[in-house]
Amino acid sequence: LPLFLQVIRCRAAVAWARGKPLSVEEVEVAPPKAHEVRVKIVATGICHTDDHVLEGSFPDIDFPVIPGHEGAGIVESTGEGVTSVKPGDKVILFGLPQCGECRFCLNPDSNYCLKSHLSEPQNLLPDKTSRFTCKGKQIYHFLWISTFAEYTVVPEYTLAKIDAAAPLDKVCLLGCGFSTGYGAAINTAKVKPGSTCAIFGLGGVGLSVIMGCKVSGASRIIAIDINKDKFAKAKELGATECINPQDFKKPVQEVLIEMTGYGVDYSFEVIGTADTVIAALASCKMNTGVCVMVGLVPSGSVVPIDPLLLLSGRTCKGTLLGGWKMRDSIPKLVSSYLEKKFNSDLLITHTLPIAKINEGFELLRAGKR
Ligand code: NAD
Ligand code: ZN
Ligand code: ZN
User: Fold this and answer.
1) Which ligand is nearest to the CA of 54?
2) Cα(177) to centroid(ligand 1), Å
3) What is the pTM of this model?
4) Range of the domain at 350
5) Which of 8, 117, 120, 176 could bond 29 through an S-S bridge, CB–CB 3.0 to 4.6 Å?
């Protein structure tokens, strides 16, 4: 068989069941079918959303699964009908596809696609079969891209070709965390120059929101986390003040209202709990304040909201991947990265081999990312 038709054996991190750590296994990766691409993953980030998958709080996941959705790599082979990439091209994979044909893709104001997990679970490829097996068992895909594998097979509309000069171990973050936070500020909130912003949660995504607020010309950027070790990096990226809610007796929303007079112009919830969504909404200014939900609150939970907060004119909105149409935007974001318009490298705290992936999750949980 020619190489591109062969099954590849390689390592991947498999989550066998909900609540269990990942286990690094040898897996078989079948060749790509029509409109699919097999990619050699060079680097992948760990996003908190992957931890939601392991905990079982991400909606509609099937086990055993290979998680991971922040990857960059090199095209190994392509199935019939693939036109946008060829073997050897550098690519970034993303968990929000852009088929380019559905009603949402055709709407210039939307970055949703009807092929997304929320409309059609992406645990199997579009033909409803898996390309992964391990110890004779079928393994499910995650968001169609399963980047915690040395090779993965994905539909063509979940990747984009990027500049050959891009360092894959750095730009993989553009596949989710960086783009989500940066876009939440510039696309979803549309932060105006001179405004005041508050960011709840200073993980990779929250720090990227800070970068987006800064580039938009915000004059006050208030960073909030219960882990004060996050404050130095937040300041380096543009935060003007940092606060730890645990240092105060009163709720953090009252602290923010006192600090700003009437509340902030834009607040961003980048943690994913009901309490912090309530606090973020209550922290924004009467009548004009905008609260953007970025954190993934566990599926099935309910957030009680005081209707007067909205009735009086505040806006509460959410964002998927920062509002970017991913296939169109990723190559442009990579160009901006290469032109040094932002420095997402500052988000990288550790680089580990795949065999140590559970250590990476421990670091994430300990807040040392
Ligand atoms: P992370 O775990 O690296 O960061 C979360 C931060 O929140 C940590 O620094 C932690 O100390 C802080 N925190 C926890 N509880 C807090 C509290 N009560 N008050 C203040 N700070 C608190 O996570 P991440 O990778 O940056 O992801 C953040 C969230 O964004 C996750 O829920 C993730 O699932 C979600 N996410 C959403 C999208 C999207 O498209 N909307 C994309 C990527 C990630
Ligand atoms: Zn993510
Ligand atoms: Zn679409």
Assistant:
1) 1
2) 10
3) 0.96
4) 3-177+323-366
5) 8
